[in-house]
Every structure is written in structure tokens, then in C-alpha cells.
Specification:
The chain starts with 7 loop residues before the first helix and ends in a 10-residue tail after the last strand. It is α+β, with helices and mostly antiparallel strands. The chain folds into 3 domains: about 80 residues, conserved putative lor/sdh protein from methanococcus maripaludis s2 fold; about 160 residues, no CATH class; about 110 residues.
């Protein structure tokens, strides 16, 4: 069995080496690594507490439909439009060819009829004048015969018979002239009707209101009107994520939605929040893409534990046609001590920060509220410096 001899000098040598290493590590931790730490000062500020929201835009959207089946051509670009401006045109290509042929045929008949009827009318009107003179003479002869021969005489009866024949012919010719005029009027009406069909086969649809023109339709125009706030449900909110818009051009059916006029002055915003945060009539602030907007709460209702708010912008600002967007809604304004979000560090299940004094030390804190400007906490003092890159401190523990 081999015996191991204990050497006190070797032990002291290893002990000195370990002590040197430990001293070097302690020096690095205390004097070198802290130089790489970043510090930010605890500040006292007023901050706004916000919640993320996804508002739905409610607005009056008047749908314009194709009046006839045909080919649709836009006449106005998307954007602001005035009342009575032409929005789009629909051409009925199928019926136009037949209507044009019929119109040419009627024009030909009218031209021929005008020539013939003009000749016949002149002949018949002159004959009427002659009959009128003959009738007048017959009346005078009948009166004379009645005075000379009596009403029962053969002479008077023959004269009266001639007078009745003239009267019958006169009335017949008069009716024939009226008939000719009616035929002419019928052709003229037919031509007017065909011309009207020509216009109706090329229909221009005009705007009924001032507003914003959009050709984007998604079928939610009636469901998302301000008047339908009471009927809004979670199903509609969820369906919005899957809505696909489409643009109608080319061939359209009669009655098919083609465009819409959005009244931006009717714009309202509806959004779901987890708590009953506001009262009706209260003014609130919303941030969207870095811009501040003011709104008034005009309605609210509870939906399956959440609260649906209805807000009216002081000035409409959402682009017409937008269905929903992301924003920050200010729910509270507070004053307190703020530290950077990145300075918050959890150690052994306890939340705290590293504070710079004579040395960097760990200090537990209480988080009051997190905001975009920083985290409001309790447990530090205004003006103290906290480490903003605390993960580096794991090398100093």
C-alpha cells in the first residue's frame, strides 16, 4: 500500500494561488465590471395609463347599385365627391344593338309616313272643305224645300237624304284624318320610347350625398352603421379579421352593389374593453400612430363580461373605408416615480431593481403600473440611479 505524504508547503502554495484568484475576481467584479453597467435616474412624472384597443369604425355608408345589367365603367375616382356628381355608368350592350335597329326602322317609317300622310291630309282636308260647302248648300235647299213643298214632300225627303249622305261622308273623312294623325303620333311616341331606352341602356348613376366615394365593398356596410350599435356582437368583432374586400368592375347584374358614399361626419368608434372604465358623456384621449385624438363617450353596453364603448371623435380623422385599427386608449392619469422597464429584474421570485449607492445593491420594489413612458414603482427615491442592464449583474453575484 502506497502512502501519501502530506506537504504543508504545497498546501500553503495552493492556498495562496486560490486567494490570488479570488482577489482578482473580486477586483474585477468591484472595479472593472461596474464600468460596463448603464444607469438611469429615477424620476417623478405624471404618466398616462393606456390600454391597447382595436376600434371598429361605424359610419353611414350609402350603397350605389347597378340599375341595369351591363358593363360598368367608373366615372369618378375614389375620394371626396359632391352631391349629384356622376359616379359610374352601366351600358347594356346586349339590348343596345336591337334598340338601335328598331329606332332606325321607326325613323324610316316616320319619314315615309310623313310624306304619304302629308299628301293624304291635304287631299282629305280639301275634300272636307268642299263637303262643308256642299253640306251648307244642302241645308239651305232643304229649308227652302220644306217651306215650298212641306216636310212630307218628296222633294224635301230627297234633299234631306242627300244632306245626310254628305254629313256621313264628312264625318267619315274627318275621322279618317284624325286616324292618320293618331298613326303619326303613335310612331312619334314609339321613336321617343326607343330613344328613352337608348338613354336607359347607358345609365349614369349619381351621388345622392356629399361624402367619400369608395368602390371597396365587403358586405358589412349595413351591419356597421351607427344605428346598429345595439346589435353589435362578438361575432361581428371576430368576423372582421376575416373580411376580404373586393372591387366590382366590368359586368354587373341589375341591383348589384357597385360603390358606396361614406359620410365621414357620421363617424363613430366602437371598441371592447375589459372593465367599465368610463361614463357616458366623458371625454377621453386616444393615441393612433403617434397622434393624439379626442373623443366623447356616447354609449356603452356589456357583452359577455366585456364592455362595448361607443365613442364619437371631436373631429373625424379615420380614413373612410377603414374598418378597424389598433390604438392606445388613455384610461387613467397618475403621478409617481418611474424607472425604465428594462431596469426591472426578478431575483428568486422577487421583483426589484439594482440601485447604485457606494456599491450596486439589490432592492425589492412594488410595481404599481406599467406605461409607455416607464414603470411606476414604490420602493425607490427620486434622483437615485438604477441599473438599466441588470442582466450583466449575474456576473457580479
Amino acid at each position: 500500500m502506497r502512502r501519501v505524504r502530506f506537504s504543508p508547503f504545497r498546501f500553503i502554495r495552493w492556498l495562496l494561488i486560490m486567494l490570488l484568484i479570488w482577489t482578482s475576481i473580486a477586483y474585477v467584479r468591484s472595479n472593472i465590471l461596474p464600468q460596463f453597467l448603464l444607469y438611469e435616474q429615477v424620476r417623478f412624472e405624471r404618466v398616462e395609463v393606456t390600454v391597447a384597443v382595436k376600434p371598429i369604425v361605424l359610419q353611414e355608408e350609402n350603397i350605389l347599385v347597378a340599375p341595369i345589367k351591363g358593363t360598368m365603367t367608373p366615372l369618378a375616382e375614389e375620394g371626396k365627391v359632391d352631391r349629384s356628381i356622376g359616379i359610374f355608368e352601366v351600358k347594356n350592350e346586349d339590348s343596345m344593338e336591337k334598340i338601335t335597329q328598331d329606332l332606325k326602322e321607326v325613323d324610316r317609317l316616320i319619314a315615309n309616313f310623313e310624306q304619304e300622310s302629308s299628301r293624304l291630309l291635304k287631299v282629305k282636308e280639301s275634300r272636307l272643305l268642299a263637303l262643308e260647302r256642299e253640306y251648307s248648300e244642302s241645308v239651305m235647299i232643304a229649308k227652302e224645300s220644306a217651306l215650298l213643298y212641306g216636310l212630307d214632300s218628296r222633294e224635301y225627303k230627297e234633299t234631306f237624304k242627300d244632306m245626310q249622305y254628305l254629313e256621313s261622308e264628312w264625318l267619315g273623312l274627318d275621322a279618317e284624318v284624325v286616324g292618320l294623325r293618331k298613326e303619326r303620333d303613335t310612331l312619334l311616341e314609339r321613336r321617343e320610347y326607343l330613344r328613352k331606352l337608348t338613354l336607359e341602356s347607358n345609365v349614369v348613376v349619381k351621388s345622392r350625398d356629399d361624402g367619400y366615394l369608395s368602390y371597396q365593398l365587403d358586405g358589412l356596410e349595413t351591419k356597421l352603421s351607427p344605428a346598429r350599435f345595439d346589435t353589435l356582437s362578438l361575432d361581428i368583432f371576430e368576423a372582421l379579421n376575416g373580411v376580404s374586400t373586393y372591387q366590382v368592375q366590368g359586368e354587373v347584374e341589375a341591383g348589384e352593389p357597385v360603390a358606396k358614399i361614406v359620410r365621414d361626419d357620421s363617424q363613430l368608434l366602437a371598441m371592447l374593453v375589459a372593465e367599465n372604465l368610463f361614463n357616458i358623456g366623458q371625454s377621453v384621449t386616444m393615441y393612433h400612430q403617434g397622434i393624439t385624438h379626442k373623443l366623447n363617450v356616447i354609449g356603452q353596453k356589456e357583452i359577455q363580461g366585456d364592455y362595448l364603448l361607443l365613442l364619437k371623435p371631436v373631429e373625424p380623422w379615420v380614413e373612410p373605408g377603414v374598418r378597424f385599427f389598433s390604438a392606445e386608449l388613455v384610461v387613467e392619469s397618475r403621478q409617481g416615480l418611474l424607472v425604465p422597464q428594462k431596469a426591472i429584474f426578478e431575483k428568486e421570485g422577487i421583483t426589484g431593481v439594482y440601485v447604485k449607492e457606494d456599491i450596486v445593491e439589490w432592492r425589492p420594489i412594488e410595481v404599481l403600473v406599467a406605461t409607455s413612458a416607464g414603470v411606476m414603482v414604490h420602493g425607490v427615491t427620486q434622483g437615485e440611479w438604477v441599473v438599466s442592464n441588470p442582466r450583466l449583474l449575474r456576473y457580479l453575484q
